């Protein structure tokens, strides 16, 4: 109870935990035109390339990007082998266009055929200039993600591809000029020309700096605070840059704990999953584009690129389920879409995030994370996100808790937009910032180190507080942290979908790697099915004698159903049940857990398949914590006699006990029913059987006493003469009975004369009442609280 008043006093100030990004000048130094691109369709019979086609693109790199280690007479060629990205857009993906009043004026499904997006691999070979002959062998050295705008003899595409340690970006000259920053190079080329630049992994001269709680003294709670605040801190001296001893004690353990997970990806999906995402474009952002169609193309291409990072790292692809576009005219103020306002010095990115979070919570969908795209950078911040809010689509109940949901805001220059988006989505998965040379000097900084012995990550990775244009992957520590979050349910992953039986927007196609209706299997065409004895790549049917496909189904061994009771999913915890194959199906049963609240080791209880307690969850976050210090679902932990709000995870795991025999669900405490409460209450008695026996004994003694008194009183009345003058006989059992509160009166007292707030007596001459001395005048007795 000592924390209750402090919690009620300060909780309205705690809006959630977020990280923001700060920008400086970017570093695109040179732009070159890309010419002589040739498209080779894999299906020669097709006249044009559609969204389900596979093809190759070949071209020579501009002279400036030719490797100097090769002789002058050698020239490097690139081949991009592309297949359709069917995860990015599905049959439920839709586009909504709003007017300035926030009303939907157009809503339609996104037609995959209008947005040809592909993924694949990058190869290189070399040619001898004098005779122009290509080397016979292509060498695979990277990946590619592109959007195809025009096919035929003069193909036009946009996207990204990697060659070893170098990353290249391709844009149309028109789109580059529309989206470029003022300081970036100009280029003179036709609108349909393609331009190319390299995103080198060499450290740039200028860097974009993300604000960090301990590096930049930026707010991690809201714009008022410079530091996280213990709940019982008597005085507040923000802005001093000092961190209290309690905060140091709380946060210094975080870096040590994260070293245990470096490089451990065991908690990430073994088979690919899809996280559906949403994108909202405010009035400022849409004004950069000529049309809504151009803006949609840009967003789809952006997510196609970022999805490549998440697929390669976490085996999770991004599917764009909703694109919401606001009108070009910015309204003055609209409560329905309060985040859609013109750029202003009085409206910062933090406030925009809060308003966007509130708007997102009113949308019932299965979207993992929503991103708001804007061009407003009045405070130099280019991105902001809540920590650990994956699949958070319900606003937690409570005073002033209506800000946090699965959202982030992107206000980045176009050339690093993919880095900022990948970074902010990473925060949604619960990823912390990487350690830098600056944060490593601060023992209280909570960050992800390079290894167990080296702190500084050397500013190389996506989650780095300082990010360059060349950041392209997550650090081993970030990988371990995200996978551990998924494994231990530290973030909610219930909205992630399996990549199977995906419903496509348009016609199905054998060879695309997706098992669709009417197909037995699909291992990805002749190339993907090489060495696969189970599936016919031309018909997408099982080969003779086969009943399943080992490459796509976990309960399949040598093209036959795995034997009954073959383990297909191991238990990750004593509360997580082992799943076994049925022997009659190739599909592993869905992941099952013991019921929430089931007792487990160390006097703990199961919650979402994890054996845990409220105290244990606090100790996992703060090694020196004594445990939970409040009964809500917000993660408040006791540390050094103070109650501290955790910044790395906002809520207790779903299924964790809370309140009065309730359980947590997405930050809310769902109170248990009275029956469950009574059952829980009784189960708390160690000697409950003796209690029941004692109660039954009392009832039996009462019955015996009643029978005995009735018999003997009948005999005595025959022998005794009673003076019935003024003797009063009271009825003690029903006087002041709780029935009075419901006006439910004993049926043997005349109800026409009964007043529930009177004290009744009778004698043998007549029935009367008198004032009940046990009730107050305002008759508030028996009111249940």
Automatic annotation (TrEMBL):
Pfam families: Disintegrin (PF00200), Reprolysin_5 (PF13688)
A biological process term (GO) from this entry: proteolysis
Keyword Cell membrane tagged: no
Transmembrane parts of this sequence: 688-708
Residues annotated as binding Zn(2+): 423, 427, 433
Span of domain Peptidase M12B: 272-482
Keyword Metal-binding (UniProt): yes
Catalytic residues identified in the record: 424
Keywords, sorted A to Z: Disulfide bond, Membrane, Metal-binding, Transmembrane, Transmembrane helix, Zinc
InterPro entries membership: ADAM_Cys-rich, Disintegrin_dom, Disintegrin_dom_sf, MetalloPept_cat_dom_sf, Peptidase_M12B
Domain of life of the source: Eukaryota
GO molecular function: metal ion binding; metalloendopeptidase activity
Residues of the Disintegrin domain: 507-596
Gene3D superfamilies: Collagenase (Catalytic Domain), Disintegrin domain
Described function: Probable zinc protease.
This protein's name: Disintegrin and metalloproteinase domain-containing protein B
């Amino acid at each position: 109870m000592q924390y209750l008043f402090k919690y009620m006093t300060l909780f309205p100030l705690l809006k959630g935990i977020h990280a923001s990004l700060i920008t400086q000048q970017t570093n695109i130094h040179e732009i070159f035109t890309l010419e002589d691109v040739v498209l080779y369709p894999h299906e020669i019979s097709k006249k044009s390339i559609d969204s389900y086609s596979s093809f190759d693109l070949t071209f020579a790199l501009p002279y400036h990007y030719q490797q100097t280690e090769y002789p002058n007479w050698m020239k490097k060629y690139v081949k991009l082998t592309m297949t359709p990205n069917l995860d990015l857009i599905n049959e439920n993906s839709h586009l909504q266009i709003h007017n300035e009043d926030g009303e939907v004026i157009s809503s339609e499904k996104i037609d995959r055929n209008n947005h040809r997006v592909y993924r694949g691999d990058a190869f290189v070979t070399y040619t001898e200039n004098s005779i122009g002959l290509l080397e016979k062998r292509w060498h695979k050295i990277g990946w590619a993600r592109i959007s195809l705008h025009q096919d035929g003899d003069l193909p036009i595409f946009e996207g990204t591809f990697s060659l070893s340690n170098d990353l290249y970006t391709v844009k149309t000259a028109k789109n580059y000029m529309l989206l470029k920053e003022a300081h970036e190079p100009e280029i003179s080329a036709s609108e349909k020309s393609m331009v190319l630049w390299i995103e080198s992994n060499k450290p740039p001269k200028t860097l974009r700096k993300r604000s960090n709680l301990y590096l930049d003294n930026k707010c991690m709670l809201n714009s008022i605070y410079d530091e996280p605040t213990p709940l019982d801190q008597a005085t507040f001296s923000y802005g001093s840059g000092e961190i209290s001893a309690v905060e140091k004690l709380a946060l210094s353990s975080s870096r040590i704990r994260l070293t245990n997970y470096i490089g451990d990806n065991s908690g990430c999906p073994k088979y690919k999953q899809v996280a559906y995402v949403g994108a909202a474009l405010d009035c400022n952002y849409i004004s950069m584009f000529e049309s809504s169609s151009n803006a949609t193309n840009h967003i789809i291409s952006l997510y196609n690129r970022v999805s490549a990072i998440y697929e390669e790292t976490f085996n999770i692809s991004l599917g764009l389920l909703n694109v919401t576009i606001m009108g070009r005219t910015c309204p003055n103020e609209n409560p329905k879409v309060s985040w859609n306002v013109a750029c202003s010095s009085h409206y910062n990115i933090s406030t925009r995030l809060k308003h966007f979070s509130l708007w997102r919570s009113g949308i019932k969908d299965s979207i993992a994370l929503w991103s708001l795209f804007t061009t407003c950078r009045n405070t130099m911040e280019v991105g902001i996100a809540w920590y650990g809010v994956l699949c958070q689509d319900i606003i937690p109940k409570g005073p002033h808790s209506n800000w946090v949901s699965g959202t982030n805001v992107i206000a980045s220059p176009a050339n690093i937009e993919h880095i900022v988006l990948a970074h902010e989505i990473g925060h949604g998965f619960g990823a912390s910032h990487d350690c830098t040379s600056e944060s490593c000097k601060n023992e209280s900084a909570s960050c992800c180190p390079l290894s167990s012995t080296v702190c500084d990550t050397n500013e190389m990775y996506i989650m780095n507080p300082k990010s360059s244009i060349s950041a392209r992957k997550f650090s081993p520590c970030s990988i371990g942290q995200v996978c551990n979050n998924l494994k231990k349910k530290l973030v909610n992953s219930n909205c992630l979908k399996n990549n199977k039986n995906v419903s496509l927007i348009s016609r199905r196609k054998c060879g695309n790697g997706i098992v669709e209706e009417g197909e037995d299997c699909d291992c990805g065409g002749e190339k993907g099915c090489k060495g696969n004895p189970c599936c016919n790549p031309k018909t997408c049917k099982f080969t003779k004698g086969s009943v399943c496909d080992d490459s796509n189904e976990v309960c399949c061994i040598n093209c036959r159903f795995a034997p009954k009771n073959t383990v297909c999913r191991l238990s990750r915890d004593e509360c997580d049940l082992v799943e076994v194959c049925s022997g009659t199906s190739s599909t592993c049963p869905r992941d099952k857990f013991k019921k929430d609240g089931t007792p487990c080791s160390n006097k703990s209880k199961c919650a979402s398949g994890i054996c845990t307690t409220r105290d244990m969850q606090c100790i996992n976050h703060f090694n020196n914590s004594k445990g939970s210090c409040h009964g809500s679902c917000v993660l408040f932990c006791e540390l050094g006699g103070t109650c501290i709000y955790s910044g790395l995870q906002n809520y207790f795991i779903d299924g964790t006990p809370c309140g009065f025999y309730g359980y947590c669900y997405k930050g809310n405490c769902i109170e248990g029913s009275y029956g469950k409460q009574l059952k829980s209450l009784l189960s708390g008695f160690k000697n409950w059987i003796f209690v029941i026996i004692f109660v039954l004994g009392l009832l039996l003694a009462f019955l015996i006493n009643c029978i005995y008194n009735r018999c003997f009183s009948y005999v005595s009345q025959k022998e005794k003469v009673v003076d019935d003058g003024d003797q009063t006989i009271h009825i003690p059992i029903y006087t002041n009975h709780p029935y009075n509160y419901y006006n439910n009166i004993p049926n043997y007292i005349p109800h026409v004369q009964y007043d529930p707030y009177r004290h009744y007596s009778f004698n043998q001459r007549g029935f009367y009442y008198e004032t009940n001395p046990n009730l107050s005048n305002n008759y508030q007795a028996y009111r249940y609280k």
